Fold this protein.
Amino acid sequence: MDAQKVGRRIQEARKARGLTQAELSQLLDMSTKYISNIECGFKTPKLNTFVAIANALNCDANSLLTDVLDVTTAQESGKISGRLQALPAEAQRKILRMLEIMIDEEN
């Protein structure tokens, strides 16, 4: 597992919730230094700690592991597809054209 990628996702989720490392560490009853080490990728949390972090940040584990799990790509594609289907037909066509251009640039 890439601890730096997971740590970066934890940091992003923490900031999105408007929490400081100190506030998150208080919620988890852990040291601020430990939270910092996780976010920097120096430490990999044990499973129970990881679950506690996800719960404290009110996010699902997949969102924190999105860079290290292959399955999350399919899940994200499904979410995008659902959102795309909810748009009017013309907006769908515009977005699909943009995606095609972006994909062509990657190849």
The mean pLDDT is 90. The chain is about 75% helix and 0% strand.
